[in-house]
Amino acid sequence: MVGRMIARRAHVIKCASRKQEVNWHQCCPELPVSEHGTAQISCLNKSKMRFTDFIILAVYIGLSKALQPDGLGLPVAEWRQRVSLSELSLSATGFSDSFPLSIDDSHCQALSENLTQKCNAFVNCTLRYAQPVGVCLNCYKEFYDYKSLYRIISLPDKGSTDNCSQILLKSDRLQVFVVFNDFFHKLWEESECENCVSDTVIKNDTLYFLNVLQITKSCFDTYQQPGNYCDVCKQCKENYSHLNEVYNKMGKNSSLCIDIEDMMNMTRKMWSKTFNCSFSRLEAVPVIAVSSFMLFLPIIFYLSSFLHSEQKKRKLILPKRAASSSNLMNIQEKKS
Amino acid sequence: MSNIMKKVSWSSREDDPGVAERTPLLNGTSRQVRIERGRRGDSELNQTEEIPHNEKLLSVRYESLDYDNSENQLFLEEERRMSLLGFRFLEFKRWLVCAFIGIFTGLVACFIDIVVEKLSDLKYHAVKQSIVKFTEAGGLCISLILWATLNAAFVLAGSLMVAFIEPVAAGSGIPQIKCYLNGVKIPRVVRLKTLLVKVFGVICSVAGGLAVGKEGPMIHSGAVIAAGISQGRTTSLKKDFKIFEYFRRDTEKRDFVSAGAAAGVSAAFGAPVGGVLFSLEEGASFWNQMLTWRIFFASMISTFTLNFFLSIYHGKPGDLSNPGLINFGRFEDEVRFIVETCHLKSLLTTLCCSLGGIIGALFNSLNYWLTIFRIRYVHRPFLQVAEAVLVASVTATVAFAMIYFSEDCKSLGEEPVEHPLQMFCKDGEYNSMATAFFNTPEKSVRSLFHDPPGLYKPQTLGLFTLSYFLLACWTYGLTVSAGVFIPSLLIGAAWGRLFGICLATSSNSMFADPGRYALIGAAAQLGGIVRMTLSLTVIIVEATGNVTFGLPIMLVLITAKIVGDYFVEGLYDIHIKLQSVPFLHWMMSSPVICFKQVEKVGKIVDILSNTSTNHNGFPVVCDQEPKRLCGLILRSQLIVLLKHKVFVERVNSSLIQRKLQLKDFRDAYPRFPPIQSIHVSQDERQCMMDLREFMNPTPYTVPQETSLPRVFKLFRALGLRHLVVVDDENKVMGLVTRKDLARYHLGKHGLEELHLAQT
């Protein structure tokens, strides 16, 4: 039974090694009819040579050599040359040269290249707009392209025999595409880009904000004079307050993404630190006055209660004592 | 008792002027007999001396709990009648009561937490709006006045309730519960009214921004809930649900109150085991396995209920991340922390703990003097309310002033802050002092533990520590419901973090995260103030959620306790002493009034009505010679008998009387009517009452030669109220009560005697 299995397997391997460019399952129909079903499925499922195949092959070679001196069709040396270790290596690329994939191979290959391209585009864009942060508003197209392609790959339509998701995404332990996908989605979520951009269209609120920001910036540029910032503070105050209002309202609606936040932050820094326009401590005097008054009140309160109210006294109650115990005598002696 | 007397001196008594007249110990008996006849107005002797309140007094109004069961005939009959099924059912009822205690304590804690959060949010929101409006326009003193007014309004409401409706609900409640578990019956401490006042009081105090916490009142509330549920009725609302009648006596009630206190601790801190140990530490009487198991059950249920309902409230059911009212957050990097506490760093840590002990002792002494002043001079209710309101407004003023003048600004977004206050910082930054002051203390503690280094400047922390220390010291002891756990944690966390920051800047290496030192400082400060070691260690370990911190925290607390004890006692002990409670911390028999087994009603009524003696236990002697001890009967039992007129003549007469059952005693429990409300006609005074059925036939006795420590051990271990002293013929020589024992206190100069006083 085992011998038959080994023989069958070795036969398939031998067949496939001979037919270089031919698809794998063409070897399988050569098998006897009764075992066709299972053997074919197992044939189809194994898209690459496994170590066990090598062992089986070695055993078969050994056995056939032992049993039939001229058993193998091919000379051993030539066989060995063909099925060299490099060809038997477990890398998909090496394998695909000697053991070709299924029918949709070119399709998957194309998808893989496409996906790589889209990833590259998004990464390049993100890195270009890393500082100052502009990921959401500048790279959303690339992101959505990538996202749709990934969705096509990972969730194929029902009924199609497309198994590129299996090949590309789940074939190995590392799962590089999946790792990258997680990373992109995490980046997108942390930037909260969905608040500004949705369905490949920038939202109205965001556009309005950008508009107001533009106006404010132009105001800054107009009135800005190096060294003297009084004008800027006065003239652009209205614009700046309006910008702040818009920003706060957007904050309440949670329609802020990292781009907007960063732009606002920059503007604020410019306003407060560079132009030094924020308000200073006016009238510390009333605050000090009110505080001192408040702090003085308890002192008055305690003094008045000390002087005016009656001190609470306690009435002592004298206890009864037992008459005769010898302890009393002891104490009396001690005292006297 | 002679052994102790010989060894110690009486030096403390020598200072007293006029000691010769007043001390009955040194004089002959004849003078005492004259004194006890109650001739108060006797100017010759002038024995009703009045002195200002001090800590060396014992109040006469505190009685003991009757923890020891009176196993009279009625009780034994009832036990005989109870079937095995009845017994099992009784045990099941005990478990059921403990479960309900846990559930209701958790619900009350949940309620307090939610309401405090909402009110605080509203208040801070309003103040913040006003500050934001006036920062630009000027006129910030209006914001200050607004803040002070809001604080004052909340605290006024809370203080009015406490001062006028139920004064015993003032303070944190832990001293009162400690006394209750110790065996002292503090009047009105476990009533429904107390619970309501306490809950609303603590909500108002915390929402009013006082430097207080809400954990201590939680323990008191848990105890009240336990006392209420276990009795199956409310005497305040006059409703009797007719369940749990077996539990209507002091023994069972005190056991349930232990469970309630444990449930309260567990709800407050998320520390069920800490709660069990708290009850164990405070009420070490008759601790058995089943009781421990039930108490543990109650605390577990309490924390689980709180967790469950808070998760639902926060919109994340099943999250279960709020096991207690206070949440210290997660601590990581434990191993590194442990390794770092060695060599030089351990020396510094020890320094930290000693500092905690010293600062704690300072806190306690300041508070002690302040409380003495308050008891002596600020004793009228409206004065107390006024004081509380003043403290609230000053708290707001101090906080506002510190925020106003602080220059410490930090950028937004580094750490999420609830109410970031910009004040005079640049746009996009917020005031660092405001994170400490403009928050509930719990959130401030969390931020001090977990915020990354560099978020607080040393000056900010230093000023904050100093001002908060003074505020907390001033606030504890006011007539409001308030705890002291959180303020001490906050003070400790602040100076601990300051210590850590100084270390990090002085040595250039990354010593430790200042957050670790904040934790050590908080534990050291708390240990230095309250001086609870065992339960506090477990509470902190459970609250931080990390068992690895157990040993460091324990060492910290022990060090703080040792250093602090060198100077002054723990805060709760000080307050217990100031309240003149006869607390047995770790003689003399009085002349007793005995009854015969069959006694005349008139004599009983006269003795009970005698106001000069306030006896509650009377030994019963045999009628025949020699007059041996036969049993012990209590005042409460005599009153029930008089009320139901259980006279010998009436039993013999043709009137068919219902025989008195234990149920009648239980119905009268706990508020027995005073003797003045019992009317006995002249004829009835000639009747006789047979005490044999109702007295405790086997009271605990000691021979005359027993030493004081031994008597003390009996009282503590058995939870006694009366101990009969007999001679070798079993004749009654005297009666030792708790007050007798508590009068003798091992003070600094040897055995001191405390005086009894009317308070």
UniProtKB/TrEMBL annotation, chain A:
Pfam families: OSTMP1. The chain crosses the membrane at residues 284-307. The keyword Disulfide bond does not apply. InterPro entries: Osteopetrosis-assoc_TM_1 (IPR019172). Keywords: Membrane, Transmembrane, Transmembrane helix. GO terms for cellular component: cytosol. Signal peptide: none annotated. The keyword Transmembrane helix applies. This is Osteoclastosis associated transmembrane protein 1.
UniProtKB/TrEMBL annotation, chain B:
It is found in: Membrane. Its main location: membrane. PANTHER family: CHLORIDE CHANNEL PROTEIN CLC FAMILY MEMBER, H(+)_CL(-) EXCHANGE TRANSPORTER 7. Residues 695-753 form the CBS domain. GO terms for molecular function: chloride channel activity; chloride:proton antiporter activity. The gene is CLCN7. Belongs to the chloride channel (TC 2.A.49) family. It comes from Erpetoichthys calabaricus. GO terms for cellular component: lysosomal membrane. Residues 1-24 are annotated as: Disordered. Keywords: CBS domain, Chloride, Ion transport, Membrane, Repeat, Transmembrane, Transmembrane helix, Transport. It is a multi-pass membrane protein. The chain crosses the membrane at residues 95-116, 144-165, 195-212, 256-279, 291-313, 346-370, 382-405, 460-478, 484-505, 517-541, 547-568. The keyword DNA-binding does not apply. This is Chloride channel protein.
